[in-house]
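Work Package 3 (structural annotation) set out to generate three-dimensional models for the target panel prioritized at the project kickoff. During this period the team completed the workflow that converts sequence records into discrete structure tokens, so that structures can be stored uniformly alongside our sequence database. As a representative example, we reproduce one entry of 169 residues exactly as it appears in the project archive.
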Amino acid sequence: MEEVTEARRKGLPFNSPLETGIRSVGVLVALYPKAFDLQRMVAFDYLVVHSADVGGPDSLHPDLPLRSAELLVRRELVERGLHLMMSRKLVDRMAEKTGILYRAGEMADVFLSTLTSEYMTLLQLRAQWVAETLGDMGDDEFRTLMRENFDKWVEQFHVIEKSSAGSVS
């Protein structure tokens, strides 16, 4: 925990708009030329970070208890990250009949190729997994997948909540 606190003091981008924006760019590059709405981008961001939750590769971030609550606070962060990446021409926003959609910008792939850390390699592998596994799912099928898993995550939350309540004297 001290390492995370220290990283935040030093200004490292842990769960900042920069980090979520870079993850969004990674997902959109893997899905190019497809475009997705904010809700799907929020779900993709969660699934890239916690891919093992839905039977994918090892999760990018540690499996912390109560992580399902992240879905509730992630929307604003992902939206801010998308706007940051749009300001750098890495994400394009389009108004369609179905709503606002986001797609990888012209320079997104080039930008990602300049980032060479181990985290970026793992991120790009998970983004590719999301693209191959979930990118072609229709809205109804995707909602069903998320609902089923969200119910499982909420159930896990209740188990943890009950065990914590039982240990208080």
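Residues 139-166 form the longest helix (28 residues).
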